[in-house]
Each structure stands twice: as structure tokens, then as C-alpha cells.
Design a protein that fits this description.
- The chain is an alpha+beta fold.
- It contains 4 helices and 5 strands; from the N terminus they run ααβαββαββ.
- A 3-stranded mixed sheet has the order 2-5-4, with helices on one face.
């Protein structure tokens, strides 16, 4: 005795699976649209309480509490200056703004979690969304004229 599958029995189960798949896909797409696209550097908040700390100690503390790394030249920063900082849940940008507000140090935050510090001639006011670095001076073009000769005062070809 063979059992035959009728068309009425097969179609509802396929429709139910298809409906489940459609609803899952719809919910997945809706959830993806709900995600925010904020970068790490914009969301990172840090709390610091340091007394009479050098700039290197401040950087080490920020590096230990966040994923940021500082890149700078020793000659651009006053490494002996002492800072007293008491900040609670502020963004790294605001901490650096407060730290360098009276100096000529400019900084730039990158999405790969690096902070580049450089010495600028005039410190621009850094806003929340616009970070500037020291302006780059264009090289000066100098015209050089003359002829190249060897020891016997003979002109080189070319």
C-alpha cells in the first residue's frame, strides 16, 4: 500500500517555510537599518583623575583606558610640564582640547585609533567636528642655472 502525497498537503508547508524565511529576512533588514554608524573616536569617553602628572603619564592613562595610541615627536611637546586633570565621562577630543588649550600643539584623531600630535605655529580653535593639524607650507621653487663641468673644465653631455 503506497501513500501518495497530495498537492494540498505539500503547498501549505512550503508556504509556511517561505513565510518564515520572508519574515526573518524582513526583521534582519529592519534591524540593520536601526544600527548607528558612529565611529569609535566619536563615542569613546574617558574619566581621568591625575595630580601633577607629566604629559607622558596622561597619555599612558588614556591609552590604558581606551584603544587610542599617541604619535608625537618629543621635541614638539613639553615633557616636563605637570598637569592636574579631573575629568569624568568626557570624549577624548574634549580631554585633548583642555590639555592643549594654552599650547601650540595640534592634534588629529584617526579612525584607526591613532592620535597624531604636532606643533603648529598658531593653534586653531578645535571644534567638536573639525580637527586641524599644523598648516603645511608649500616648498619654494628655486630656478638653478649653470653648467656642470669636470676637473678639466669640460662640460658634461646631457
Amino acid at each position: 500500500m503506497k501513500k501518495t502525497i497530495t498537492k494540498d498537503f505539500v503547498r501549505p508547508s512550503l508556504f509556511k517555510n517561505s513565510l518564515k524565511m520572508k519574515l526573518t529576512t524582513l526583521l534582519l533588514v529592519i534591524s540593520l537599518f536601526q544600527m548607528k554608524a558612529n565611529g569609535y573616536s566619536q563615542d569613546t569617553k574617558v574619566s581621568l583623575t591625575l595630580k601633577e602628572a607629566t604629559i607622558e603619564q596622561v597619555f599612558k592613562e588614556i591609552e590604558s583606558k581606551t584603544e587610542f595610541r599617541f604619535l608625537y615627536k618629543n621635541k614638539d611637546l613639553d615633557l616636563d610640564k605637570k598637569y592636574t586633570i579631573d575629568i569624568k565621562d568626557k570624549s577624548v577630543k574634549k580631554v585633548l582640547n583642555q590639555l592643549f588649550k594654552d599650547s601650540k600643539v595640534a592634534f588629529e584623531l584617526f579612525e584607526n585609533r591613532q592620535i597624531v600630535l604636532s606643533l603648529s605655529k598658531e593653534r586653531n580653535n578645535v571644534t567638536e567636528n573639525n580637527f586641524t593639524v599644523a598648516p603645511v607650507e608649500a616648498p619654494v621653487a628655486i630656478a638653478i642655472k649653470g653648467k656642470v663641468t669636470d676637473e678639466k673644465e669640460q662640460v658634461y653631455q646631457g
